[in-house]
Amino acid sequence: MKKILLYLLLLAAQQTIAQVNPKLQTKLDQQAKEVESKVIDWRRHLHQNPELSNRETKTAAYIEAHLKSLGLKVQTGVAVTGVVALLETGKPGPVIALRADMDALPVTERNSLPFASKVKATFNGQETGVMHACGHDTHVAMLMGVAEILSKNKADLKGTIKFIFQPAEEGAPVGEEGGASLMVKEGVLENPKVEVIFGLHISSITPLGKLTYRPGGILAAADNYSIKVLGKQAHGSAPWMSIDPIVVSAQIITGLQTIISRQTELTKEAAVITVGRIQAGIRENIIPEEAFFAGTIRTLDTAMQQKIHDKIILTATKIAESAGAKAEVTIRRGTPVTYNDPALTQKMAPSLQKAAGAQNTVVINAITGAEDFAFYQKKVPGFFFFVGAMPPDQDPNTVPSHHTPDFMVDEKAFVTGIKAMLDLTVDYMYMSKK
Amino acid sequence: MKKFYQTICLSLIGIAACAQMDSKLKARLDLQVKELEPKIIEWRRYFHEHPELSNREVKTGARIAEQLKVFGLEVQYPVAKTGVVALLKGSKPGPVIALRADIDALPITERNSLPFASKEKVMFSGQETGVMHACGHDGHMAILLAVAEILSKNKNELRGTVKFIFQPAEEGAPVSDGVSGAELMIKEGVLENPKVEAIFGLHIQSLLPSGQLAYRSGGLMASVDGVDIKVKGQGAHGATPWDSVDPIVISSQIINGLQTIVSRQTELTKGGAVITIGSMHAGIRRNIIPEEAMLEGTIRAFDDNMQKKIHADIIRTATKIAESAGGKAEVNIQVMYPATVNDSKLTEQMAPSLQRAAGVENVKITLPVTMAEDFSFFQQKVPGFFFFLGAYPADMKLDKQPTHHTADFMIDEKALTTGVKALINLTMDYMVMNSKK
Questions:
Q1: How far is CA A123 from its chain centroid?
Q2: CA neighbours within 13 Å on the CB side: how many for A48?
Q3: Cα angle at B363 between B375 and B299, to 5 degrees?
Q4: Can you give the pTM of this predicted structure?
Q5: Which of A8, A46, A147, A400 has the smallest CB count inside 10 Å?
Q6: Which helix or strand (DSSP H or E) is residue A69 part of?
Q7: Which residue has the higher pLDDT, B224 or A20?
Q8: Is A195 a catalytic residue?
């Protein structure tokens, strides 16, 4: 019975979308096609000139120039290097935010593209190449295209559109603030108050032309934890004089596995606890005084996230006590879960289907990577999705993944991404009762 | 250098202190032992053919009491259920020495073609089983009877009193019997009236060559304690572990944690230690996470403080690991037998007597063994000396030699006279050394 109701609701949603002016729809589709070559040029320029997180000054200037040329009200230096532009239609309607992230990665590009990056920078005291190895260049270029088209059609639109070009999605340098959390802090969701936010991510491992999404947690919350095990030092030959923090750590690490395997409702959402680093001791024959290990926690549900944090503390402290040691657990919350508001997702999924075709719109499993788009979603309902950009001749088993020197996207994906953003914006606008 | 001097000093003191019965008397006693050998073997075979379980040694006790009366001893029977205690007062004043033999057999069906093999059957824990002297207590009884007979005959040479203790239930009585064995004998006053000054005991050892004696100063045999750990979790369907607190996974973590008590937290140079989980029971069906799990184990140590520390370590390890997963562990430690610790002064004093009984080349210093022996209860009250009597037959191969507590257990009867001589020498020499002239 419940299912049938849901189905009726979905039908109702589709009907609502059908009400968008067919003429406008045709025009948008056509203009998306027309803007393609420009977007590719922009993207190649950005790809060739990548900048690290919180250092996207040339990128910002490039975006700013374009947005100003469209006649938009532009605000720069938001959250260090971010650019925010407002398209005010002058007619009542919702305030919709569209977001693209701008930063590149300390990766040395390895391919023969004519527009491959030759940029070098120093990162953590080490010289490295800089590369748009996560596709943020495409995000910026697509949103520049979307801004251009929407500006052109201002007369047919209502409400306000806020274009957010965000720096430092990959994480600000140590000691700096940055990214979505700082943008939110600096008021990007206010004046005018944003009602809904849309964002996308290109995916080099998703077939070209596909759009993928998931209601609820689509990308994980990423929290860091570190555990210091305090034991007692002794000669390696006399363990009974010690409280051995290495053996205790080994027991704790094994114990942490059981939080996932035995104590977490995995049918609800997946969860990950990884120990990524462990450090103890200086010499073979000295039992050290303490051991240190640290890792990342990935969760897709805020209640589970809290529960797992509590269980990590319990497991580590009690196992340490079981051997006469002490464990100090520090958990630092990082990016929250990228949570697609279920009602919003249900309402907007048909727009994706319109943009890419129903057969090309796919509900996917959650991904344990993280995305700071989540900070916007904590404040306002948001919808985040993936744009497939794996070239058709690629073997899905060997396609280079994001954050690698061989990362590559098929530029034909951009039109689909642009159409998706346009449809989401316009459909939402016209479904709004404002 | 220091060590060297110390060694010389000790040996000198040892020899000086080691007054002994005169050699003529020793020769006479040795001869008497030799003459008695057929009877010793006959006694041993009688006991072997008629084994009785712990605290059920009714015929055995009666047979011993009857025999001791024949020697003219003052006999007290039954003591501690089925035990026998006899007193031999020597003609000259001197210390009271106790000699102890244990008398119970095991629920094992004998597997050999000896003409005197046991054919006894009995119910044990609701199961029919054969009964067998598979630990050599039959030999202990025969040896101690022989010692009683010979010392009785030589009463005029005795400086002091000998108390012969035939103790039931060394292997452990049924739980419902309550305190038993050596512990019960002590409770019933076996070390009083007259007050015992030193106690000697031996154990046949089927893995030590016949005719050899082995001993060790300090911890010789381990303490034994039982540990029960009940892990309380929360039951759930096997498909939804997140609804449970899984006592099986917690138990496995506890078992791993217990290993680190020995490996990391116990001073193994002081003495070895063992924690064995011998039984683990939980659940009834593959797809049900049970509510509880039960672990049972045995703890061995050679030192009272180490034993206590291990108990505390086990309680902490189990309860905290259980808490780490949201469960609870109830730890129940049953303190059973203490470590069999040979008083170092007494051992130093008496080791030469063993050498005289078996020959210097036949007395070895053994490593500690992780088996336990309730002789330790006597040693907690008075200085005691416990040693092993080698009894593995010359024609057997050591790697094929069946161990104690098995259906094929076998001893060389030729070893029995060595045991008799050892106890006689210990007794006579101790009396010479410790009686007031």
A1: 22
A2: 11
A3: 35
A4: 0.81
A5: A8
A6: helix A57-69
A7: B224
A8: no
pLDDT digits (tens, 9 = 90+) for B101-146: 999 999 999 999 999 999 999 998 888 999 999 999 999 999 999 9
- Do residues B271 and B301 touch, judged by C-beta distance below 8 A? yes
Residue ranges in chain A whose pLDDT is less than 50:
1-2, 4-13, 15, 18
Comparison of pLDDT for B9 and A20, the residue scoring more: A20
- Amino acid at the residue A277: R
Minimal-distance CA residue of chain A relative to B267: A240
As a whole number of angstroms, the distance between CA B389 and CA B208 comes to 7
Interface of chain B against chain A, CB under 8 Å?
A: 240-246, 249, 253, 256-257, 260, 263-268, 316-321, 323-326
Strand partners, B394: none
Q: Which of A64, A103, A410, A427 is catalytic?
A: A103
CB contact at 8 A, B367 and B218: no
Tokens of A16: 């609502």
Q: Which two tokens stand for residue A45?
A: 């320029």
Going by their DSSP bridges, the two strands A73-78 and A126-129 should be labelled as unpaired
Q: Which residue type is seen at A147?
A: A
Q: How many Cα atoms within 13 Å fall on the side-chain side of residue B2?
A: 0
Find out whether A389 and A135 touch, Cβ atoms under 8 Å: yes
Contact list in B for residue A246 (CB cut-off 8 A) is none
Do the Cβ atoms of A293 and A226 come closer than 8 Å? yes
Question: B249, A262: Cβ pair inside 8 Å?
Answer: yes
Q: Is A169 a catalytic residue?
A: yes
The verdict on a CB contact (< 8 Å) between B325 and A315 is: yes
> A236-245 pLDDT, tens per residue?
989 999 999 9
